[in-house]
Amino acid sequence: MTSLALDGSGRAAPAGPAGAAAGDPAAAGPAAGLVEIALADPLRPARRPVPKSLRRLLGPVLLVAFWQLGSSTGLIQPDILAGPWTVLHTGYSLAADGTLGHNLAISLRRVALGLLFGVAAAVVLAVVAGLFQLGEDLVDAPVQILRAVPILGLVPLAILWFGIGEHVKVFLVALGTAFPVYINTFAAIRGVDGRFVELARTVRLGRLALIRRVVLPGALPGFLVGLRFALTISWLILVVSEQINASSGIGYLMDQARTFGQTDVIVVGLAVYGVLGLLSDALVRLLERRALAWRRGLEAT
């Protein structure tokens, strides 16, 4: 490690006694205004930074370690929270006998149907409200009013409408996922760059061509943001809806485990929901990178 002293003007000043003798004797003291900079030794190997992916794993690993420590020492009782190894063994057993796969497939089917109906309805309403003033007057106010009502507060009414079968579960997921898609898509349509619209009118694009080539591609980023929120909300609503007189599904599995005090099964169900949420979010991120590659190229130019 080498040292370099700079004077107030940023020029290198002589270090040591020679530097002090060249000027005022007080220059050798701390009031001289000299700043000493430590330079890295070029012969010393540079320290490699820890990859971000490994740094992000540190928190979960510590959490599991403390969890295992509490379970092993008896600080966490099994009837309160099962230990990590017990949860892993239970998850393996449920997967091996087909119980986990069967209930997971049913939960995925409910989410897929709810997303299909909810996203389709939200996109249609957002396009109508975003492109036409009359459509906004007729559509936006009722949607905003319904959005203010808690989704789970509609469960009794939904049961009266659809019964306690599959329809009520799909309806609740569809209703919960429609609002974030509508809001973000509507805002994205209204926020399309006016320069693109003017350019389209300059080349005399018709209304339908303008919507298809300018408005909808310009609103795609907002739609994908809404879709990410919708996927997160869909799993939250599914947890509750699968406990409404259900006979299958991950939520049903957790509800049965609650009845018999099986905390290991409950944690397995929570882990499955968490993994599904992360995978669905990663899928939308990948879709966003692929679908918006043209936008990044346009902004780079």
From TrEMBL:
It is found in: Cell membrane. Its main location: membrane. GO terms for biological process: alkanesulfonate transmembrane transport. Pfam families: BPD_transp_1. The chain crosses the membrane at residues 111-132, 144-164, 170-193, 265-287. Residues 12-21 have a biased composition (Low complexity). Residues 1-21 are annotated as: Disordered. Residues 100-284 form the ABC transmembrane type-1 domain. Keywords: Cell membrane, Membrane, Transmembrane, Transmembrane helix, Transport. CDD domains: TM_PBP2 (cd06261). It is a multi-pass membrane protein. Belongs to the binding-protein-dependent transport system permease family. This is Binding-protein-dependent transport systems inner membrane component. It comes from Pseudofrankia inefficax (strain DSM 45817 / CECT 9037 / DDB 130130 / EuI1c).
